[in-house]
Amino acid sequence: MLDNVIRPAHSAPHPVSPAPLPGQPQPAQPPAPTPSRPPSSPSPKARRRDTARSIISTVLVLLLAPVIAVLLTTYVFQSYQVDGQSMQTTLFNNDRLVVWKTTRTWARITGHPYIPARGDIVVFTDANIANFGEDPTKQLIKRVIALPGERLVVANNVVMVYNAEHPNGFDPDLTLPYRRTLRDTAGSIDVIVPAGHVFVMGDNRTDSLDSRMFGAVPANDIIGKLILRVLPVNDTKRF
Length: 239
Known about the structure:
Structural class: alpha+beta
Low-confidence stretches: 1-17
Largest sheet: 8 strands, antiparallel
Number of helices: 4
Strand content: 15-25%
Shape: elongated
Radius of gyration: 39 Å
């Protein structure tokens, strides 16, 4: 019977550097790594300084946040909620809106009146509404129908605007993008819109306190222009 034979495993030999011959320079040895020094913990004075800076930063944020919010709502944009039916069927009661103010702000900075475009929906105040039992500081939202220097006529439930481009007049309710086709604009009016004023009306002409009653609105009383309806979410819209 043959004995079991154990054979050595074949493996690649380890490379061996030849020994230098006598008289040859010895190979340079790499320097030993310098042990790194562990990071030192901040001193109590540094910790107190960092804590003070953190507290000051937090206090500044808390103080500046309401100031920034006031500046934004005064000069840039503001959120409003519709209260009433005078702008139906464009806007409805409790709609949440965003009104843009930067154009009016820039006009005041440059000393020029802010005149919105025809068809824009604007928020404004007008002291003349006090004559109708309303708070003179109340803010209203209406659509711009006629601009400074134009002649506006309301007759037979139809609105007509006359200007240099349309000496024979045109009906803004039929020509502007909002396309209001109802012929229910009550009143008998024939006026020239004064300089620096705009003539406004609600889209719901049968239930709107507007320029037909209290006259053209001074441009300086305009707060801003409607740019967005954000609520209800399923009816968001840009204007």
